[in-house]
Amino acid sequence: MPSFGIITAPSQVDYRDLLRVWQEADTVDGIEHAWLYDHLLPIFGDPLGPTFEGWTLLAALAAATQRLRLGVLVTSNRFRPPAVLAKIAATVDVVSDGRLDLGLGAGSRPDVPFARREYEAHGLPYWDSAEAVARLAETCTLLRRLWAAEEPFDVDGEYLQLTGAWCSPKPVQRPGPPLVIGGRAGRTLRVVAEHADVWNYPGGDVADASARGALLDRYCAEIGRDPASITRSLVVPVSYDDPGQTRAHVAEALDAGFSHLVLSLPAPYPEKVVHWLADQIVTRS
Length: 285
What we know:
The chain is 41% helix and 18% strand. The strands form two sheets. It has a nine-stranded parallel beta sheet with strand order 3-2-1-11-10-9-8-5-4. It has a two-stranded antiparallel sheet with strand order 6-7. It has one domain: TIM Barrel. The model has no long low-confidence stretch (mean pLDDT 96). The termini are close together. Helix 3 packs across helix 5, helix 5 runs parallel beside helix 6 and helix 6 crosses helix 7. It has nine helices and eleven strands. It is of the alpha/beta class.
């Protein structure tokens, strides 16, 4: 069975509008999950406009909802030290009573110049793609180890060196929140094959997503993993003016095997937008 969720970009929008949409979604049958994205400066619209920090906002929305699974699609592994991210994620999982899906990716692509500036503006490193993906793999291993460990431990990895690493409290979900890894590059798909519970294709191009999915299947076969054990996720942009176009996009994604669909809501959000979404898109798909 497909699952439907929403994503609301936490940029160029007011907090109260985001809260209204998420609390509405929490009451609407057929909407199972809700997402933010992870940027520190706008990547569209006014370059000096507001953009909320994703995990801080996610914690607030977790406390204000009761049912939705929730997450950041996807967290930039370049923004936060992995052990700190493990602590942040455990905290949000506790606040939400076990509703977190941890979205994670290597970080913004070099071909998105608007995104590149946020690293320089915040004094963050911008590793090349190969190093970023290698660090992503180390992070995945560390997250699960921190959530499971019964005593502190040391890490002497290729990129991570930790002394007395420890995470308490643990997440509500055991052994930890599901990992949703986003990306389409071959290197990233190898990390997906090894670590992900859900793979999110970054974008709505179903034909390319299918081709990337076939490559993921191959990487799974190489390590002896059943490709069907990884849920396939896709973001579908929503058109308020042409719901038929959105329904067609959803149908194409479902036919291609993408069962975890994230419906991207553009701002400004109409009143009762999630009820409209359920009626016009979800129940007709």
